[in-house]
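Lab notebook: predicted structure, single chain.

Context: the supervisor wants predicted structures on file for every construct in the current expression panel, including those that have not yet been purified. This is the next one on the list. No modifications to the sequence; it matches the entry in the shared construct table.
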Amino acid sequence: MASKRRLRRTGKLDSEKAIAQRLHARGRVWSRLGVEFSKEDARGVVSAIQHNKAKFVDRQSNRVTRWAIDIHGIPCVCVYDNKTKEVVTVLTNEMVSPSLGEQGGQP
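Prediction complete. Output recorded below exactly as produced.
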């Protein structure tokens, strides 16, 4: 069986953890928001997070942070892994807190 690891633009191979995180996030976007989450969508979310265009919510650990952002116009919270530089999962605003659900995604 061929390996699913791919060569990144940096010249490094993706880790198995990064691949698992990417697939998990894609499935969660589909189940929770009902929209497709393509590679381009994921790159856009990661870029917005890295360039502070998303709204910082909180830090879960040294490597994991949560960001409020809109995906296909739907406000949600993305859990982002700073080490693998991947979206780990996507939460609806109601899953995080009722007050955040009223604020929406991006400022």
